[in-house]
Amino acid sequence: MTTTAGAPATATTRRSFWSGLRKARELPVTIALVVLVAATYLANPLFLSPQGTKDLLLNATIMIILAAGQTLVIITRNIDLSVGSILGLVAFMTGSLFAGVEGIPIWIVFAAGLLFGALLGAVNGLLVTLAGVPALVITLGTLYVYRGINNWWAGGTQYFADDRPAAFGNLAVDTVLGFPIITLIAIVVVVALAIYLSGARSGRDLYAIGSDPAAATLFGIKVNRRVMFAFLVNGLLAGLAGVLYAARFNSVGATTGTGMELDVVAAAVVGGVAIFGGSGSVVGAALGAMLLTTITSALTAVRVDKFWQQAIVGVLILLAIVIDRIAAVRSARKLRLSEATR
To answer: Where does the record locate the signal sequence feature (predicted)?
Structure first.
C-alpha cells in the first residue's frame, strides 16, 4: 500500500521539478553560457586552460557583485546608474588609504570601502524616496556628481600595484579549490542575497513593491524604507566591488569605473531580472554577468573585432527585454482566462 501510494506522489514531484526547471528564468542564460564556453573551447582549447579559466572567473567577479546589488534595486522597479562612479570613488579611496597610511590593516580598508559605498547608496535612496523623482533621473545625476568628485579628488593622480600591500594584491592571485579568493567573496555575496530574497520577509517585500507599489502600500509594506534599504545595500556592494577592483587591477584613478553602470544593468536584465520590476534573482544576475564577460573573452579569443562584441551585447539586452515582455503578457492573459472561467 505504501509503495502504491508513494509512486504517484513521486511522479508528481518529478513532473513538478521539471516543470519548474523549464520555467526558470535562469535556464536560458545558463544554456547560452554552457554553449558559448563549449564552442569557444572547440575553436581555441587554451580558452579553458587553468590560467584561462582563472581569468574568466576574475573578469566576471566585479560584475557579479555589482549585478547582484543592482538586482535588489531593479526588483523594486528602480534603477541605479551611479554604481560605476561609486566603484571608482571607493577604488581611489582604497589606493589613497594604502598610499597615505603606512601599515594600515587590510580589514580597515575593506570596512572603510563598505561604509563609503553604503553612504553613497543611501544618498541615492534618500533622494529617490523623499523627492519622489524617478530613480533613473536621480541616479543619472549622482553618476555625474560622484564622477565629478572623483575627478576633483584624483586629478591626475593614479595609484599602482606597488602602492598596496602584497597580501592585498594576492586576493586576486591566490586560489582556494581553483577559485580566486575575490571570486569566492562574490559567490558568498550572491548566496547570501539569494537566501535573503527568498527567505526573509523584507526580501519578499521587494518583489511585492516591484509588482505593484500601490498594492504593497495597502498591504502595510513600508515601501520607502524597503527601497531605501535596497539602494543602501547596492551602494555597499558597489563599495565592496571598488575595494576588490583595487586588488584586481594594476591602477586606479579618476576614470576608474567609467561606463560600468550600463554593463551592470545589462548583466541583470540578460540574467532574467525584469526591467519593469517584481521578478528575477541574484543568481540569474550573476549568470548574466558571467555570460557577458565570457562573451567578451570568447570573442577576443577568436579575434572578433571589439565593435561586434558590443553589438552582440546590445542584441542580447534587446532579446532579454522582448522575451521578458512576452512572458509578462502571456502571464497576464492566463490570469484573465482563469478568472473568466471561475
So the answer is: none
